[in-house]
């Protein structure tokens, strides 16, 4: 069960909800996969942005992308998410960053994006994904500007 924010919505990981974890650290990636699978999510792992793009083309059913933003020093946040959105039209994004203030201000108007402050724990991760799942479950539609 995942609490989806302060609004009091409780969301169960729905069968078939697919999460893509983009993380370059193997131990962190494995911990995230274990925690998410334990909650009932299907999980794919990507080593970096190019791997995430490859997997997003192979699995257009991915619902939520969890991405560690320190991987993305060559491209802007907007460029990376725009590339992934081309393959994953209805996905939601959880972007983890130690530079939370900058990232939050840049993503403020993107209704399909949640910013997760690093370091974070399991409960913060699950709440962020829960908010994304709740938006998917409620059927929010988003305009994409590619």
β-sheet strand percentage: 15-25%
Shape: globular
Order of helices and strands: EEEHEHEHEHEH
Name the CATH superfamily assignment. Answer: Response regulator
Average pLDDT, all residues: 78
Separation, N- and C-terminal Cα atoms: 34 Å
CA gyration radius, whole angstroms = 14 Å
Count of helical regions: 5
Helix content range: 40-55%
CATH domain topology: Rossmann fold
Low-confidence segments, ≥5 residues, pLDDT <50? 1-12, 140-146
CATH architecture: 3-Layer(aba) Sandwich
Specify the CATH class: Alpha Beta
Structural class, judged by helices and strands?
alpha/beta
The description of the largest β-sheet is: 5 strands, parallel
Keywords: Phosphoprotein
InterPro entries: Bact_response_regulator, CheY-like_superfamily, Sig_transdc_resp-reg_receiver
Modified residues (4-aspartylphosphate): 68
Pfam family, one: Response_reg
Describe this structure in words.
The modification 4-aspartylphosphate is found at residue 68. Pfam families: Response_reg. Residues 18-133 form the Response regulatory domain. This protein is an alpha/beta fold and 146 residues long. The protein has one domain (2-135): Rossmann fold. Helices cover 40% and strands 21% of the residues. The protein contains five helices and seven strands; from the N terminus they run βββαβαβαβαβα. It has helices at 26-38, 49-58, 77-87, 100-107, 122-138, and strands spanning 2-3, 10-11, 18-22, 42-46, 64-68, 92-97, 113-117. The strands form two sheets. The protein has a five-stranded parallel β-sheet with strand order 4-3-5-6-7, sandwiched between helices. It is globular and about 30 Å long. 37% of the residues are buried.
């Amino acid at each position: 069960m995942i609490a989806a924010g302060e609004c009091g919505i409780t969301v169960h990981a729905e069968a078939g909800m697919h999460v893509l974890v983009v993380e370059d650290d193997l131990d962190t990636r494995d911990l995230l996969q274990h925690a998410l699978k334990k909650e009932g999510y299907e999980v794919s792992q990507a080593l970096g942005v190019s791997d995430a793009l490859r997997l997003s083309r192979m699995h257009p059913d991915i619902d939520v992308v969890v991405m560690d933003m320190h991987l993305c020093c060559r491209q802007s946040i907007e460029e990376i998410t725009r590339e992934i959105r081309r393959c994953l039209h209805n996905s939601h994004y959880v972007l983890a960053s130690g530079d939370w203030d900058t990232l939050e201000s840049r993503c403020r108007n993107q209704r399909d994006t949640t910013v997760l402050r690093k370091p974070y724990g399991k409960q913060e991760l699950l709440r962020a994904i829960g908010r994304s799942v709740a938006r998917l479950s409620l059927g929010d539609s988003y305009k994409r500007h590619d």
